[in-house]
Amino acid sequence: QAQLVESGGGSVQAGGSLRLSCAASEYSYSMACMGWFRQAPGKEREVVARINSRGITTYANSMKGRFTISKDNAKKTLYLQMNSLKSEDTAMYYCAADRGILTACPRGTDYNYWGQGTQVTVSS
């Protein structure tokens, strides 16, 4: 089954850190493309970070230097380490997976499998 379950969200002061986890089923974890996305109220869902089957990572520009995506293949878990959090990082964060097209992963948010999300609230 395609299952993705996020955890690790919560409330944190600006400048603080959180680590989000995404526990994936074997089926979901086997997919070539995985990533973290977020959506704030009234805004479009956006890409936060992505990682492919070779471990190549990409980040939205605003996340570079602050967020780190990684995965543990043995535990079938995707992580997002979030440092130097800002109030504008407040959003629902989602884990997603996609099989990809040929060797390419979706460029946007059009992933096929999604978790339910975990809320991150950053206060100043």
Descriptive overview:
The chain is mostly beta strands. 3% of the residues lie in helices and 48% in strands. The strands form two sheets. Strands 2, 4, 5, 6, 9, 10 and 11 form a seven-stranded mixed β-sheet that branches. It has a four-stranded antiparallel β-sheet with strand order 1-3-8-7. The radius of gyration is 13 Å and the shape is globular. The model has no long low-confidence stretch (mean pLDDT 94).
Provide a short characterization of the protein structure.
This protein has one helix at 26-29; strands at residues 4-7, 10-13, 18-24, 33-39, 46-52, 57-59, 67-72, 77-82, 91-98, 113-114, 118-123.
The helix tally amounts to 1
Distance between the termini: 40 Å
What number is the mean pLDDT?
A: 94
Uncertain residue ranges:
none
Proportion of residues in helical segments = under 10%
Q: Whole-number radius of gyration?
A: 13 Å
Number of strands: 11
Q: What is the N-to-C order of secondary-structure elements (H for helix, E for strand)?
A: EEEHEEEEEEEE
- β-strand percent reads over 45%
Globular, elongated, flat, extended or rod-shaped: what is the shape? Answer: globular
Structural category is mainly beta
Q: Sketch the major β-sheet.
A: 7 strands, mixed
